[in-house]
Amino acid sequence: MKKIFWFLVPAIALLASSCSSVYMPNTPNTPMLSAKGELYSGGHINLKGNASFTSAYAVSDHIGIMANGSFMNQNRDKKAFRHNILEAGGGYFTTFGEKNNRVLEIYGGLGRGSSDITYRKKTENGLQTYDRQEITLNKVFVQVNFSKKKTESFRLFGRVFPLNYGTALRASYVDMGKFIRNDVEQTTEDNIFLEPIFFTRVLLTNAVQLQHTSGWNFGLKNRDFLTAGNSVSSLGIIINVGGKNLRKGSRH
To answer: Which domains does the chain have, with CATH numbers?
Structure first.
């Protein structure tokens, strides 16, 4: 029951995004690479409809490269929000521990994106736009991931599902390239975001996993628009092939 609780813990974090912000964080990349040739790919989505993809490849036994991104197109009566971001990076990974099933990863990278937000109100003549914000974003990030590929599991519907656990801390510097509000150029803003996350993976097969990510987003600067108003929580599907066979003491 405790293991299921940590996988489902999500409610508060998934919904903790009621404040408005022009920055919508993507799901941090936590590939758990273990050996040269390992390929990781994931798709994630949160309750606001922000869809993220994460991918990584181990070019050697300790060097990995990654590509990430997210997009969102939400159109409601009172608010329309379009957002996208693309990232590329790389870094170092290693495995250690008695069974070589602990993974430490350190990555860094760059990103570019944009946000387009329209606020509307109902009038006698229908919906009327009263505030429109168009922003381009630049991003630099570093992150540290620590995870453990466990032999622990839980039983459901007569099947046994192994579990993997991990945590990551991403620090992102995000600044506006331009900020247009109601067709008038505005003073740009920047911020530093700290995004700690915890994730649990249920192994459905050797290559396919279901991941829940629970996380938060903290802004270190007091800003009016580039704030930490959206969470980093999501649900996703992971495809992972190659790497060490830790189930036998050396991959999931």
So the answer is: 2-248 (2.40.128)
